[in-house]
């Protein structure tokens, strides 16, 4: 028995090493950087002059940080609601099992496979004020009189990048929800029909309770994916106009790699990490309750 | 038979091993095959037996972050090409090798021969970190066909701000904007604004002065009156040139590196003129750009790296840069029969009044403050005066620490 115990520790150690090395180390490294004054010259060493809370103070005092923080919260919430809402509708649609439904459902995933930079470039063209297809379509149906400056109006830019990111990420949510839908036993629906339940009641009392854990998991994943959706925004607006479409990860990138203020960039990344960590914690707690209850 | 073959293989193996050349890794951003980088590497490798240069092309928008990553992980290349506004950040933060000693001993490179702008960028704090590779500046591209169509004289491009405004107005028509420039939230936006700032008599250290406000007001009026697209705040200069080539702009601010693309993609009579001047100040001005060679700290083969830089710095190579739209960074080096002769003359003339960015180790921060001001004004969030006043307040402590 002692031998198999030893083997158990080996198996336990492998994921621990993985988690500490590949997830724990970057987080700790980032945290250390956020308390140091880091330059291109001392980037290769770990021992650098201490900066105390200076980097955090600089980040908090920057108007861009406040805008990006609020934008991140709006961006993430809109993405969770949009991606799950639309994803659920599309998943229910494809669950109708019409001819070609499975093929089309698979095809939709292709948008998720496109790199964010490419999706960003694509939507930048579609959202162009004059020659963009978005304004053309809206004008053609008479929805708007004058063109919307999707990416050059500070009041609209965040909406524009949010729409693009929902389009980009929705199929992923849809696929996970679709998988959950197929796991619901058909008998339950048949029994409900016998009892005289209509489609809305069937959705409300059978489908929704059955897929709630999945929806929670998807919400958590969408939050995490949205929190790092910086490449798409980089390609579309670079966070502009001014900082109207800037979010924390992009701001962190800009501090680090455009302004060479690595400490401040790390401090901004710490804030983003805290948000994601908080959401992950809520998710884990909810799952625990589910299994206990 | 078998043994003989094996012996042959062994002989081949050892003979190549004996002349194995030292590897010199070069990072660059030049994707045009006509760029001197490609022919330079080939000729350098063939010219001597000691070093073998390996070029690695990295897309422009990833270049700086890739380089920083390489430095951070201790795998810096031996030679890099750096865009001039970032040189001071790298040299002041100790990321580049001081090459003063090697330059003094060199028969090819003499810093005194270079234009003052690139020369200033090469040095920091009494040390020498880079050798200028090429230089460039911004001038005005214009569509002569559209000039004719709207009753303007294509042989007389706008020479003052008011002429520029009037021409832009006349050229704006269904789906075509009179003028294009980059006002994006990155270095391009500032690069395109600086000529106007300098022409008005403004400077970066006095951004809240009336001259600077006038320059930003001029831009704002052009956008607000609809002769410049509002989308310029999202257009990189590459995209501004693309819009011009597809006929979406009648005029566009742009650099000489667009010329090879212009040659193949612009299907109309396009020309290049020096930038207009402010009506009253009458001072020609533009912004100066260009690339430098530098050796990062931690480079494994400093000697080989410098040998390659020397090889690339002969007048012949500096002149050959023009085939990819790159001007020689030395005033004494000029082509007799250049391709695009009118553009060559216009850019060389514009170069005389081009002012370099910085050098300043915190240039990216200064740049961002100006970016924000430009976008605030163009979108109407603030007036040009308010926008520049806050930019000046952001920049003041930076300049108090290290003046321009």
Structural summary, described in words:
The complex is a heterodimer of chains A (293) and B (404). Chain A is mainly α and 293 residues long. Helix content of chain A is 74%, strand content 0%. Chain A is built from 13 helices and no strands. Chain A has helices at residues 2-34, 54-61, 63-94, 101-108, 110-113, 116-126, 133-140, 157-182, 186-194, 199-227, 230-236, 248-258, 262-292. In chain A, α8 (157-182) packs across α10 and α10 packs antiparallel against α13 (262-292). The longest helix of chain A has 33 residues, at 2-34. Chain A is flat, with a radius of gyration of 23 Å. The two termini of chain A are 35 Å apart. The model of chain A has no long low-confidence stretch (mean pLDDT 89). Chain B is of the alpha/beta class and 404 residues long. Chain B is 47% helix and 14% strand. Chain B has helices spanning 2-18, 36-47, 60-72, 84-92, 100-105, 116-122, 144-149, 161-171, 187-199, 210-224, 237-245, 259-265, 302-312, 315-320, 341-351, 363-379, 384-401; strands spanning 22-28, 51-57, 79-83, 123-124, 127-128, 130-132, 136-137, 139-143, 177-180, 249-254, 270-273, 286-289, 291-294, 354-356. A 5-stranded mixed β-sheet of chain B has the order 2-1-3-13-6. Chain B has a 4-stranded mixed β-sheet with strand order 9-10-8-11. In chain B, α2 (36-47) links the parallel β1 (22-28) and β2 (51-57). In chain B, α9 (187-199) crosses α16 (363-379) and α10 crosses α16 (363-379). The longest helix of chain B has 18 residues, at 384-401. The radius of gyration of chain B is 23 Å and the shape is globular. The mean pLDDT of chain B is 93. Chain A binds chain B through residues 39-44, 64, 124, 128-131, 149, 151-154, 236-243, 253-254, 256-261, and chain B through 64-65, 68, 71-74, 89-90, 93-95, 175, 184-186, 229-234, 248, 297-298, 362, 364-365, 368, 371-372, 375-376, 378-379, 381.
